[in-house]
Amino acid sequence: MTDRTAALVLTTINDPVVLDACYENFARYGHLDQVTCYLIIDKKTPDAAIERCRTLQSRGWDVRCPSLAEQDAYTGRFGLSPAFIPLNSDNRRNVGYLMAYESGADFVISIDDDNFPHADEDFFAEHAVVCRDDVDTPLVQTETGYFNICTMLDFAKPGPVYPRGFPYAARHRAENATRQESLAPVHINAGLWLKDPDCDAITWLVNPPQATAVTAPSVTLGAKAWSPINTQNTALRRDALGAYYFVRMGYEIGGNAIDRYGDIFSGYFVQACARHLGGAIRVGTPVAEHRRNSHSYLNDATREWACILLLEEVLPWLTTQARLSGTTYADTYDALSHGLEELAERTSSRFWSDAVRGFFHQMAHCMRQWTRACRTIDGCA
């Protein structure tokens, strides 16, 4: 795996000091010339972020930090209007994903600006498993159909902890997880986090957790072991980017603009496509230290609530009923987009309001715009 190349993608409205930690890790383990970094700035990003990129470039790392005008010009090459990737949104990381895809890198590593790689773990090598078809790791299955990845961690105080995006219908039930050694073609790798785990705002309000240690080896998820996947410390092989559009938030449902779950929707969707194509999802290493940025958890909970309800409605269909087709990620993602629209139109309950249906139609339309952009990059649009 030493000859593989990676693209590191993140967006920020802060001074991304995390890049210094990434630089040190890649340099320490001899991967600096194998990784190109794409820092996607937004309107609120300070000049200090651009200066940090210049400093790291002077130290020998290929760090790219396109201006907003350069970002719009870039996405315009693929027929995407500036409105497709809105400003003042973590949706901006989609620009970096497209750049990573066009670069031809073997895999992409997606991080948040507050997730720091550990100095004593080879961040590149652990994520590079997404380029292998023979990963020897336990395959986990559960009786609930979902695997709580937080059970792989120790916490400072007792009580169950669940990751953001874990369905409430599957919480506080006996998973009775089983593990069996297996060789797997890994397409997606989700690293865990110490200190501040990725939990929803309700959890942070009621029982804020602190992760102190990883207590279980990495596993791959079986057919009966789904899990939310975020963008904080996640890697995908290049092909999977064709189904990894970061879903646009901001749609108004029930009087509130939904937010903070764009990566959770995208994580479940790419996971469904990977499973259809025979790819495995690995969870565990590398472990990042999540030095959580400042949050207003009451505001976060308000914006997350509709997304939580949406997932409760969609996940039973996605995990047990969806019938996907296609032999590539882009084709499978297109099939998924049409399936989501059909679900929204045929499902009748008080929950499925015109606003909810409108959100799913907008999302499906954007998913297909994404695959067209990827096909343009591949020269087959």
From TrEMBL:
GO cellular component: cytosol
Keyword Manganese: no
Record carries keyword RNA-binding: no
Molecular-function annotations in GO: UDP-arabinopyranose mutase activity
InterPro entries linked: RGP_fam
Keywords: Golgi apparatus
Chief place of localization: Golgi
One GO term (biological process): UDP-L-arabinose metabolic process
Domain of life from the UniProt record: Bacteria
Record's subcellular location: Golgi apparatus
PANTHER family: UDP-ARABINOPYRANOSE MUTASE 3, UDP-ARABINOSE MUTASE
The protein, known as: Reversibly glycosylated polypeptide
